[in-house]
Amino acid sequence: MRLLAHGSANYAPVASNHAEPGRALNRQVELVAQ
């Protein structure tokens, strides 16, 4: 099994960073098993 790391950071946020709920969503980590 491999784990690959890919950072998107400011380039593709999941939600708006104007409020705490959006910032919390943007801090998520997704793991994909390949």
Automatic annotation (TrEMBL):
GO-annotated cellular components: membrane
Region entry Disordered, spans: 1-22
Domain of life: Bacteria
OmpA-like domain location: 1-34
Key words of the record: Membrane
Name of the molecule in the record: OmpA-like domain-containing protein
